[in-house]
Amino acid sequence: MADAIFAIPGDLKSPTGGYAYDRRVMEILPDFGVPVSVLSLPGSFPNPTASDIAKTSRLLKTKSPDAVLVVDGLAFGAFPDTILAELEGRVIALVHHPLFLETGLPHARKVELKEREQKALQRANHVVVTSRATRRILAESMGLASTKVTVAEPGTDPAQRATGTGAPLQILSVGAVLPRKGYHLLVEALAPLKDIDWRLTIAGATDRHDEAVETLQKAIRTHRLEDRVTVAGKVVPATLDHYYESTDLFVSASLFEGYGMVLAEAMARGLPMVLAAGGAAADTAGEAAALHVEAGNVGELTIALRRALTDKKLRDRLADASWEAGRTLPTWHETSRRIAAVILGLLP
Prior knowledge:
Layout: E1 4-9, H1 17-28, E2 36-41, H2 50-60, E3 68-72, H3 73-76, H4 81-86, E4 91-95, H5 107-123, E5 126-129, H6 132-142, E6 149-151, E7 169-174, H7 183-190, E8 198-203, H8 210-222, E9 229-233, H9 237-245, E10 249-252, H10 261-268, E11 273-276, H11 281-284, E12 290-293, H12 298-310, H13 312-326, H14 332-345
Parallel strand pairs: 1-2, 1-3, 3-4, 4-5, 5-6, 7-8, 7-10, 8-9, 10-11, 11-12
Helix pairs in contact: 1-14, 7-8, 7-12, 10-13
């Protein structure tokens, strides 16, 4: 039996895809003979203060040398050399998406993060990523051997097929309001489509990045779409289920996705999609289930949205393909099995 210690920065209950992934995997790993405990790291990662680095060092030294340490990439990729040198025993890095690819970072910070993340991943005994796209990125940009990386895509819970609303056409986008999610670009893309009767709901936390929230709200005001766009903020699961159920078109304008769990959730409900093919999004949702546009290209997004909103037969075709693809998505049991195999294979 192998004990696994998951080192997680900040609040594990945070409503993000990465933390949801961590929670679900930790719940299931004991079924595979892997007892799990949590080591809570400071929430300032990936931008830790000097005092938080010192605290992290002290916390990591409390780990049993026989336990396998699984560190969430939000922290591990930002570990300084001093912490990397102190790590003992087997270490697994869990990378949801590379830190240096976060949208809005100054160039110098991207360069710094890439160098630090590369050193950290070289120190890890193994790396778990959530998509084939991320594995490709780590191989191409950091020289990680494929044998050192395991892909464990997020699981998706079964769901009922959505029925939609139809009048007005309900558009849904899900995820925390961050620069990377491109919500202001989505609003700009929808602005020329006022001749179509649509409503957009954005469901996701609004307390993660004040500037991104203000940029979104400014775009809504500038285009006078206050009566068309609802920024719902963080919602409870029952409310989110209702949004999915009543949606006619799911849209993601995200500039980069490490996997795109919300895309999988939309596919599990058979929703037609328009998405920006940034990062792993194009792999997660294939060509048959979604209209793909270049990430950040507002003009292309407008054209795709008009097509999807005005062509019921197209939406129906996309929805059927989405529903079929959703039947083949991995379960959380399969995700956890893959990670358990990595942990058990790293026993001293």
